[in-house]
Amino acid sequence: MKVDNLSFLYALGNIGDDLVVEAVEVYSLPKVETSTSRRCFRSAIAVAAACFVVVFMMTVINRMNIDLPIDETLTTDSQENGNYHSSDKSMTIKINELKDVPTLSYMLPMRGEDNFKPMNEKDLFAYYGIYLDMSKIVPSGMVENLLNDLYAHGIYTYPDGTVDDQNVFYYQSENDAAQTISVSIKKGNIPCFFVVKAYDRKLEKSSVNDTEMTIAHYNDVDGQDTYYAEFMYKGLGFAITTTNLSKEALINALQYITAQ
Amino acid sequence: MEDSNIIDMLFRRDESALMEARRKYETYCRSIAHSILDNPEDEEECLNDLWLRVWNSIPPQHPQNLMAYLGKIARNLSLDKYRENHRQKRGGGAFELALEEMDFVISELNTVDGEYEYKELSAIIDSFIRTLPAGERRIFVHRYWYFRDISQIAKIEQLKPQRVTHILFKIRKALRNYLKKEGFIEYESR
């Protein structure tokens, strides 16, 4: 039998089950670190807070409602497991330091042009029942990634009537795309990433403006410094991922969203 | 319901196992069929065949990974249907493009005679994929196993589409070299 393209793809179909399943796993994420090494974030936080004040004064108003933590402490627990904890009156931040690999299954939704209803940002937020000013979430110097049609906002309806209303707001640094922030929103459930479910143990919870959430920090499969947060707020599921941005940038986004 | 329970029910010839399997994996299988066929009627036909084949094949088969097992059947049935429908015709969908991209890899591929060599080719492709870094491995499988389009892969892997295209080109080139090294492509043939 002469091997034509199609036959080759048949042969390719017989690769190992693990490879087939791996590609539907969205995140390859770390287990909770068990290192006993102590991390002191006080000085870093102090510097970051100082920088924030400068930025705050220079860049105006649109961040006026955001309170960064003033007093941060490392708890006994954090010393034991290497995770980062901080708290103030409006929030308790526990960043789970992760490494290694457990993964999770993710069924890629079936999406076609014919069942997609595009929506502009205004209509989309009206649908979600919340309005987010992305300029207050995204650090300056970052632009929305509009290269990809799949970042177009809207709602998919399947032939059986079920709806896929997950949308991603994806921004990257303008020049090199080295820094990114994505905000995924979905009604009723956490968006498809489900980092937390990838672990065989519970991750510690944080609270921002009385909204419970899980925050993780890890290096992604390409070694990029990544923060991740997921939570429910006003009946909406949020998943926020940043790469090569500070944790303050993430906290800033979390504070803004949970204050709306 | 756990996959092992579904398989146990199939072994007991309990028809509700099919309902559970459909509830859990129909979207996944349909997305595979959709990537290849992009025709609701054909997709439905493939899915009907899929559940019949599952019912007839388990037992005696006892898949280690039910999801991959169902995905492979759905993929093969969809390729069969594609072959039946499109012997001459080629369009511009993700599957057709993936198919055309393989021209470069296999343009000088030796004839494969019989099931043994066919399986050997599968094993070589498998071992090649395992040489790739995790991110590239997934991108390759996204493209040539699931037939996802570049923009979909870019979104899943959080990369720019151009980067995905570049990585795929690099992998195809490496695969071609790998097939040469393994004797499936002869250097002098061109």
Fold and architecture overview:
The complex is a heterodimer of chains A (260) and B (190). With 260 residues, chain A is of the alpha+beta class. Chain A has a domain of 176 residues: Protein Transport Mog1p, Chain A (3-Layer(aba) Sandwich). Chain A is 22% helix and 30% strand. About 27% of the residues of chain A have low confidence. Chain B is mainly alpha-helical. Chain B has 2 domains: 83 residues, Rna Polymerase Sigma Factor, Chain: A, CATH 1.10.1740; 96 residues, Arc Repressor Mutant, subunit A (Orthogonal Bundle). Chain B starts with a helix and ends in a 9-residue tail after the last helix. The chains are: A alpha+beta (260), B mainly alpha (190). The interface between A and B is large, with 49 and 60 residues.
Brief summary:
The complex is a heterodimer of chains A (260) and B (190). Chain A is α+β, with helices and mostly antiparallel strands and 260 residues long.
CATH architecture of the domain at 25-33 and 91-257 in chain A: 3-Layer(aba) Sandwich
Outline the biggest β-sheet of chain A: 10 strands, mixed
Order of helices and strands of chain B: HHHHHHHHH
Average per-residue pLDDT of chain A, rounded, comes to: 67
Query: What's the gyration radius of chain B in Å?
Result: 18 Å
CA-CA gap between termini of chain A: 64 Å
Largest sheet of chain B: none
Question: Gyration radius of chain A, to the nearest Å?
Answer: 20 Å
Helices, strands, pairings?
The complex is a heterodimer of chains A (about 260) and B (about 190).
Chain A: H1 5-12, H2 17-22, E1 25-28, E2 31-32, H3 42-59, H4 76-81, E3 84-87, E4 91-99, E5 103-105, E6 116-118, H5 121-128, E7 142-144, E8 154-157, E9 163-164, E10 167-173, E11 180-187, E12 205-208, E13 211-219, E14 225-233, E15 236-243, H6 247-257
Parallel strand pairs in A: 4-13
Antiparallel strand pairs in A: 1-5, 2-4, 3-4, 4-12, 6-8, 7-10, 8-9, 10-11, 11-15, 12-13, 13-14, 14-15
Chain B: H1 3-11, H2 16-37, H3 40-57, H4 66-85, H5 94-106, H6 114-130, H7 134-144, H8 150-157, H9 161-181
